């Protein structure tokens, strides 16, 4: 928890911070992400969470739509955007102007195409904003797709 608190403090002072937690199945990555989520919720930070699943049939658009819905904050309103990805970025930037926004992505290695490339773009766009991104992945060679390796 100390590490998470340090990430929040650093994001408040210097902008975007990220943490990637890797390991074999069953070591507690998702549990740790859950604990970070609870801490952020207790502090009242805007949170956006998504858990990618094995055999996920959804698209990248589905994941971004879910992440938008999770950024449930009365200070943001639906804005006309060309894509759900652009809407997510707009809302995350707006919320980050008021303090830290926490994005939690569980099992990022299972994300559909082109989510990893979009996530790289989101990190670039959110640079300098008070955003903390924490992602988990299973460290198994089977999951090392090209788009995931670009993200790493």
**CATH domain class:** Alpha Beta
Number of helices: 6
Structural class by SSE content: alpha/beta
Rg result: 15 Å
The ordered string of helix (H) and strand (E) elements is HEHEHHEHEH
CATH architecture: 3-Layer(aba) Sandwich
| Dominant shape | globular
Beta-strand level of the residues, as a percent range?
15-25%
Termini Cα gap:
23 Å
- Provide the residue-averaged pLDDT: 88
* Residues in helices, as a percent range: 40-55%
Number of extended strands: 4
Low-confidence stretches: none
Identify the strand order in the major beta sheet. Answer: 1-4-3-2
Notable traits:
Rossmann fold; alpha/beta; 6 helices; 4 strands; 152 residues; 4-stranded parallel β-sheet; single chain
Summarize this entry quickly.
Helices cover about 45% and strands about 15% of the residues.
Report what the structure shows.
The chain has 152 residues and is an alpha/beta fold. It has a single domain, classed as P-loop containing nucleotide triphosphate hydrolases (Rossmann fold), CATH 3.40.50.300. It has 6 helices and 4 strands, in the order αβαβααβαβα. A 4-stranded parallel β-sheet has the order 1-4-3-2, with helices on both faces. α3 packs parallel to α4. The longest helix has 15 residues. The protein starts with a helix and ends with a helix. The model has no long low-confidence stretch (mean pLDDT 88).
């Amino acid at each position: 928890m100390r590490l998470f608190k340090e990430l929040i403090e650093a994001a408040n002072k210097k902008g975007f911070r990220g943490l990637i937690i890797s390991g074999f199945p069953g070591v507690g990555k998702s549990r740790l992400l859950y604990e970070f989520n609870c801490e952020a919720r207790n502090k009242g930070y805007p949170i956006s969470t998504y858990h990618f699943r094995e055999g996920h049939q959804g698209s990248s658009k589905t994941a971004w739509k879910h992440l938008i819905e999770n950024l449930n904050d009365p200070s943001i309103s639906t804005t006309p955007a060309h894509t759900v990805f652009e809407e997510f970025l707009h809302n995350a930037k707006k919320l980050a102007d008021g303090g830290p926004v926490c994005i939690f992505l569980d099992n990022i290695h299972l994300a559909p195409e082109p989510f990893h490339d979009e996530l790289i773009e989101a990190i670039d766009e959110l640079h300098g904003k008070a955003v903390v991104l924490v992602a988990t992945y299973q460290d198994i060679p089977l999951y090392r797709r090209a788009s995931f390796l670009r993200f790493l």
